Amino acid sequence: MSVRLVILCILLLPLAATSFRLRCANCTSQSLACNHTFMSCPQGDVCGSDFSYDDLGRGYSLSGTRQCINPSVCNITSSESIQRTHSIRVFSCCYTDYCTPSTDRILQMINNTSPNGLVCPTCSSLLSNWCYTSETVQCKGEENMCFFLTIITKVVGRRAKVQVFRGCTIKSVCDQGNFTYEKGDTVHQETMVCNKAR
Ligand SMILES: *[C@@H]1O[C@H](CO)[C@@H](O)[C@H](O)[C@H]1NC(C)=O
Ligand SMILES: *[C@@H]1O[C@H](CO)[C@@H](O)[C@H](O)[C@H]1NC(C)=O
Ligand SMILES: *[C@@H]1O[C@H](CO)[C@@H](O)[C@H](O)[C@H]1NC(C)=O
Ligand SMILES: *[C@@H]1O[C@H](CO)[C@@H](O)[C@H](O)[C@H]1NC(C)=O
Ligand SMILES: *[C@@H]1O[C@H](CO)[C@@H](O)[C@H](O)[C@H]1NC(C)=O
């Protein structure tokens, strides 16, 4: 499981004179193949794939979905190594009726999961705002940044829940920066500090 949340920014696309809706694959799968039915998309959505690779230290698993998605997430890729875990998540899109989004990027990343010689401090805590570490993790594939991520989840009327993680990641994950996301009575806040891995 990728630790960072993917924010679906709502793009204000200009509405076409005729309401144009794509038809896209709709499926869930434990492989990169997805047997699918089709769905009609909400206005402005495109056909997307969202695949994850998770290695929890005892072999890896793949899972994913294809469905209509907001085009703002089309190019999101993440890769994180935390303690004994390594996870990769790749979104891809295509833009015509019944199209199949490419799996090239996820295949390329899954093909490159070996340690790359860089290391980062690593730890995680699901209960506090700090985690001490003398442990390190080997960065894998394209990972060249060390991160310290703090996730605060506040539900109105309850105590805030704080989680922290340290490990290796790729630059585009660091570039997402800090953000706050509110939905209903829940506020989700992510703060990420990154340094070059050595
Ligand atoms: C997809 O469908 C084909 C034919 O119906 C079946 O043989 C295959 O096992 C299915 N694959 C998955 C991943 O469900
Ligand atoms: C997509 O597929 C799921 C599972 O097969 C189904 O429950 C859902 O209704 C489908 N969505 C649409 C919009 O067709
Ligand atoms: C995603 O990348 C493609 C190819 O580099 C580019 O054409 C497209 O505008 C990008 N989309 C977004 C939402 O950044
Ligand atoms: C996987 O890596 C090998 C060796 O680096 C390369 O020859 C091959 O083209 C790669 N495959 C993909 C799908 O990227
Ligand atoms: C995110 O917040 C941290 C801590 O407040 C700060 O050090 C860092 O520079 C911020 N990142 C960005 C991209 O503003």
UniProtKB/TrEMBL annotation:
Keywords: Secreted, Signal
Gene Ontology terms: cellular component: extracellular region
Protein location: Secreted
Domain of life from the UniProt record: Eukaryota
CDD domains referenced in this protein's UniProt entry, alphabetically: TFP_LU_ECD_PINLYP_rpt2
Signal peptide segment: 1-19
PANTHER family linked: LY6/PLAUR DOMAIN-CONTAINING PROTEIN 8, PHOSPHOLIPASE A2 INHIBITOR AND LY6_PLAUR DOMAIN-CONTAINING PROTEIN
Protein name: Sodefrin-like factor
Biological source species: Engystomops pustulosus (Tungara frog)
